[in-house]
Amino acid sequence: MNWIGLDGRVAVVTGGGAGIGRGIALGLAAVGANVAVLDRDEAGSSVADEIRSRKGRAVFIACDVTSDASVEAAAARITADLGPASILVNNAGTMRAGALDTMPMADWDAILALNLTGYFRCARVFGVPMLARGQGAIVHVGSISASFPQSFSGAYSVTKAAVAMLSQQLSTEWGPRGVRSNVVSPGMIRTPMTEAIYAAPGVHETRRSLVPRRRIGVPEDIADTVVFLASERADYITGQEIIVDGGLMRTLMSVIPRPGFEGTPTA
Ligand code: NDP
Predict the structure, then answer these.
(1) Domains of the chain
(2) How far apart are CA 263 and CA 50, in angstroms?
(3) Of the residues 12, 13, 14, 20, which should be mutated to test ligand 1's pocket, given the most ligand atoms within 8 Å of the CB?
């Protein structure tokens, strides 16, 4: 706990009520951070309850990150209840199926509003006070789909690629004033968002077999990396992306048939 240096720090996690955000909120609380769990879904209050039941300090705040008023109200409450935030984890995001030639423009707008503008809004609302205090860390949950187009998912990959650049831009503009900005990009993680996909017959096993680490990721895999990047241990790291995908991104050449170069078959 001392090594990671987050004891008593105030951390905000958007979309912290479920899935990866829940894992991050619990991970930050486990190293002593005081956590504000923001989620539009009231069911997310169970995450703050869980932290308090483990003697941690947490508040749940119903917040829609697509709304200026909602995020500003959340920030005011966090400052009053926990103190000024020095860590922001931008995580609340979603995915929607859609082909680029036919998807409604309203779908495009909705995904950008949440996955990109929501991240920028929170970076500003929570980051500007960090600049005033000369200290802070922002970690954005991106996706490997920022680098590999996730076809028929509408604007999803576009938003994740934009988040990667937003983070880099923040790192150069805000680094000199003490605020770092980094991205953690998950591969395939089983969460409420992806549950319907894994529920389809054979999908879990097929996906698992494509990952060099031979398992589907869990929210804790992402949480551990976020905790590190948010911590003092990462003080000299900004403008970077860490891929947490069990090796999936490195497999392209391995799925191309090359007779005579098969190696030893594995599970
Ligand atoms: P989940 O849908 O499981 O959890 C996201 C949480 O954010 C939900 O509680 C959701 O509420 C909440 N949320 C949605 N919209 C808003 C909003 N406007 N304001 C506040 N909270 C909101 O998603 P995941 O945990 O799977 O994904 C989290 C992040 O990780 C996303 O940015 C996603 O793109 C990224 N990611 C996920 C991967 C995966 O395999 N799961 C892979 C790569 C990246 P509600 O239930 O009401 O929608």
Answers:
(1) 10-242 (3.40.50.720)
(2) 47
(3) 20
Amino acid, res. 134: G
Mutation pick for ligand 1 pocket among 47, 66, 94 (CB with most ligand atoms within 8 Å): 94
CB burial of 150-184 (b: ≥16 within 10 Å; e: otherwise) equals: eeebbbbbbbbbbbbebbbebbeebeeeebbbbbb
Atom of ligand 1 nearest to the CA of 95: 34
pLDDT at position 2 is: 84
Ligand 1 centre from 20 Cα, in Å? Answer: 7
Both structure tokens of 240: 């970077």
DSSP assignment of 131-164: HHHT-EEEEEE--GGGTS--TTBTTHHHHHHHHH
Instruction: Tell me the whole-structure pTM to 2 decimals.
Output: 0.98
CB of residue 94 inside a 6 A radius of ligand 1:
yes
For 212-253, how does the pLDDT look when each residue is reduced to its tens digit (9 = 90+)?
A: 999 999 999 999 999 999 999 999 999 999 999 999 999 999
Backbone angles phi, psi at 118, to 5 degrees: -60, -40
Q: Say if CB 183 and CB 240 are below 8 A apart.
A: yes
Residue range 26-72, pLDDT digits in tens: 999 999 999 999 999 999 999 999 999 999 999 999 999 999 999 99
Residue nearest to atom 46 of ligand 1 (CA): 41
Residues recognised as catalytic: 156
Q: Is the CB of 226 under 6 A from ligand 1?
A: no
